[in-house]
Amino acid sequence: MKQILLVFIGGGFGSALRFLFGKFLNSPENGIPYGTFLANILGSLFIGLILGYAAKNEALTENHTLLLATGFCGGFTTFSTFAYENHVFLKSGDFTSFAFYTIASFVVGFLAVFAGIYIVK
């Protein structure tokens, strides 16, 4: 039960922060979802830092990683919103934004995870 509570608390904080990123950074004028992009990239960096640190130092307990990686990063990042935003790009015929957003999200997201792991080495 304690582990579920840790994931719940971390996820709540992550989701609330992602909501704020979207509220203040997503652009209704041009439709570019900067807030979602930034949340996903920072979440990828954070999980790389957290899990890289945990693997290197064995300083984080399972409960720490559940709170921070599973909970916070899981709530902060969002594949479902990313998928929906791409649907909107495709539906509106904005194939350039679709391609740029999709490719940038995957490439920069992977690089952010690797960077996080590299930073803590």
Features:
121 residues; mainly alpha; 84% helix
Structural description of this entry:
It contains five helices and no strands. Helices cover 84% and strands 0% of the residues. The N and C termini lie far apart (33 Å). The longest helix has 26 residues, at 95-120. The relative contact order is 0.19. It has one domain (2-120). With 121 residues, it is mainly alpha-helical.
Number of DSSP-assigned strands? 0
Helix content: over 70%
Q: Given the structure, what is the number of helices?
A: 5
Based on CA atoms alone, the radius of gyration comes out at 16 Å
Question: Which class best fits the helix and strand makeup?
Answer: mainly alpha
Fraction in beta strands: under 5%
Poorly predicted runs are none
Describe the biggest sheet? none
Backbone shape: globular
Total domains, how many? 1
In sequence order, what are the helices and strands, one letter per element?
HHHHH
Please give the alpha-carbon distance between the first and last residues: 33 Å
Mean pLDDT, to the nearest integer, reads 95
List the helices and strands and how they pair.
Blueprint: H1 2-25, H2 34-57, H3 62-76, H4 79-91, H5 95-120
Helix pairs in contact: 1-2, 1-3, 2-3, 2-5, 4-5
Summarize it.
The chain is mainly alpha-helical.
